[in-house]
Specification:
5'-nucleotidase activity, single chain, Rossmann fold, phosphoglycolate phosphatase activity, hydrolase, metal-binding, 2 domains, 6-stranded parallel sheet, alpha/beta
Amino acid sequence: MSLLPWRDIDTVLLDMDGTLLDLHFDNHFWLEHLPQRYAELHGVSRAMAEMELHPLFERNAGQLQWYCLDFWSAELKLSVRDLKQETAHLIALRPDADTFLAAIKQAGKRVVLITNAHRDALSLKLEKIQLAPYFERLISSHDYGYPKENPQFWDALQADIGFDPTRSLFIDDTLSILRSARDFGVAHLLAVKEPDSRQGPRDTAEFAAVDDYRDLIAGL
């Protein structure tokens, strides 16, 4: 990947899950732990649990409620917060993400976390990984009422923090979100090559991708 034009970047917008944190925690939770515990708590087989859950997941993917722990707790009649605590030991930083964060903060860049994670999920992760000191703001899309996939999220973010999209870098592991940011006018965009450490590299389509955070620091 070529060097970033750091002299043209004032603001760094960063996703959390799959970008700064290993997506293995979330994938394991939603695809393995939740179906298993749902089956146990509702007295059905694992296969039946998956048959009931998968249509719900597909119907709500990419919408704000997909990321909302209150929604899923009500929908599934269990405490998603409590179940997440059961696997919280899997929450982990991606390699050298903290080195990157320290470097861009030291360089005087404005650094803002923008995540679709529900505030309760954000709090759980910040208890395990000390990310907050690196950021000017920690913004959940639930604060605005729109997920990052929605153009209205970007309008709300602009009204809130007043950033210049033409002088901003945004890193996210979700291609639909990167495309939404591009449509808004964010000039510098990077995907993540390997969001989940257990699943290997993946195709990031038209976007250049972060493979090693130490490479991004060059030229700061």
